[in-house]
Amino acid sequence: MTRDQLRTLARDCLLEVAPDLADEPIPEDADLRGTLDLDSMDILNWITALHQKTGIAIPESDYARLFSLNAAVDYLSSGCSA
Amino acid sequence: MTDPSTLKDKTDYFCMPSLGSDMEAGTLIEWVAQPGDQLNKGDVIAVVETQKGAIEIEVFHPGVVGEQLIQVGESAPVGEPMARFKRTDTQPSAVRPHQGQPLVGEAPSEGAQLAITDEDAIDNGQADQVKPPAEMKDTGLKQGLEPEQSISSLNTAPGSPMTKDSGGLDLDAMRQAIAAAMSRSKREIPHYYLSHDIDLTPASDWLAAYNAERAPDARLLMNALLIKAAALTLRNFPELNGFDREGRFKSSESIHIGTAIAIRGGGLVAPALHDADQQTLPELMVALRDLVARTRAGQLRRSELVDASIVVSSLGERGADRLFPIIQPPQVASIGFGTPRQGAWVVDGQLLIRTLITASIAGDHRHSDGHRGALFLHRLAECLQTPTDL
Fold first, then answer.
1. Average pLDDT of every residue of chain A
2. Which of the 8 DSSP states describes residue B8?
3. Residue B357: its chain A contacts at CB < 8 A?
4. Which end of chain A lies in a sparser environment, N or C, as judged by fewer CB atoms within 10 Å?
5. pTM of this prediction?
6. Segment (H or E) for A72
């Protein structure tokens, strides 16, 4: 997938998990936990969706690397947890 | 006291049930079952609007739906007949719920309903029985929900849970409901508070190893472990798990953990995870994911709103060290978990860095004493030291 496709995917999955975020555009650098107030259940659900849609393994130890939409795209673009 | 002769008339009706101790009336949003439909106990008959969102109403007995007596959009007070309903269980003691689940003693929802009957004169055909049927409420949790099903339920959640018109959440109304319940709690319940620091390292290490071997849809959250540990420990503390009815304590046979779920924007609900002590951790996790999704979409069931025998609140990953819970009437205790943290801890005479969590309990001093509350926390700490037994 291209970075643009990943960006769209990450955003779409986020909106499925937290539909109330749809009211305003989500800044790509916004901290998901700190600024958008997503909790561990939201993050797990979002990462589950990302894994299912891309097939990329996202171990729990890597969760902190997906701290914003941009960061998630960077992580998924590299394709693995290296 | 309810007059048996007036109640007898109501055995052929399904009446507006109470969805909480402060509810007086509900507005019908949707008929899910139509006249002629045969329903099993626990099947959804209609959707009713309350301050907690659109709540699915389940029937208490198997039967056939008859003529609808109120229309969509109409409001009816608690206890008012909503539809004709012919029960098909003639001998209540002989009824077995479908799925072949065993009779296990008085279900707390029945007990809670009876007590509400005393207060509010609602009858859904139960007050005319001497003893309610000993049945386990079938909540669908034991049907082996696959994780994929719970994920797909997220995908079908309404796009905008904030609008009242879509049957979603009205946060203002929810805030009023919380205010009423918490004010009442502080007015009427003499709380005692205890807290206890617990070494969470064994549980945390176990969880990390468990999750490392699994794809995200099969992973667990620490909250599932905390809820299970609390539920298991409650088995030995029946005086903390039940209801206050006008000063009298009624213990709950089942441990239905109300799990506090925060809603972005300021709402808070604590719907029940039924029989949490009997669920495996994966089952609990599936149920938790489903409950959170439906809570945020405003799609809960009545049994989830009224059945909780105790609430467990967890502050989660980014919060405070310690929580002082407020007991939710008509329950008699409330359990809290702070945010897990790294801290100094003495192990075998050595000072180490461990993962710690502070558990707390608020108890209704009319029904339990600090000694028992303290013992509960002590046992809870022990339980969390052996996560493989959860």
1. 91
2. H
3. none
4. C
5. 0.77
6. helix A69-78
